[in-house]
Write a structure and sequence with these properties.
Structural class: mainly alpha
Radius of gyration: 17 Å
Number of strands: 5
Helix content: 40-55%
Number of helices: 8
Strand order of the largest sheet: 2-4-3
Distance between the termini: 24 Å
Strand content: 5-15%
Oligomer: single chain
Largest sheet: 3 strands, antiparallel
Length: 172
Amino acid sequence: MTSTRCTHLRTPPKEFTLKASSVVHDADLRDPAVAEQIRGESHGAKLQRFVPPDTIRNFHEEIRTGRRPGLKSNLATPAMLARTFITEANHYYHVSEFYPAFIGLPVATEALGIPPTSAYRMVRAGSFPCPTTYMGRKHVVQTKAIMHHMNIPDIIVHPDDVENGVAHAGGR
């Protein structure tokens, strides 16, 4: 990501029109492999609304070629490994890895819905909802902390599932 502003970290809409039943047809939703696939495709559908598809594709290409390490294979569950159409178990990654590790305070306040002037006052008073730190001369917030505060789970996904969700939401 070459942009200095992380514009795709906006607060997601309360509801998406894409439902799990529109992603997986004729499947047992209690099957852990199906649930995992639904989580990945749902994440991909959400990303498709905020992030250019090339950015998603480039990130996944880095994972597939080994430039970014995926999860260690011992974290792959038997259900994950049973999905034979999935390429390489070590390509799984946490959603937070897609985003920069830190975001600037202005972007964080936008995601949290806090006016910037109030946010700076909150930081000085020590009452900002997420821990902040200085990087250079700017206040930054850890992306995982923002996700935690906004109740966005840091789920484990596979590039194939995410790309399927992107394609489905994009009507392809």
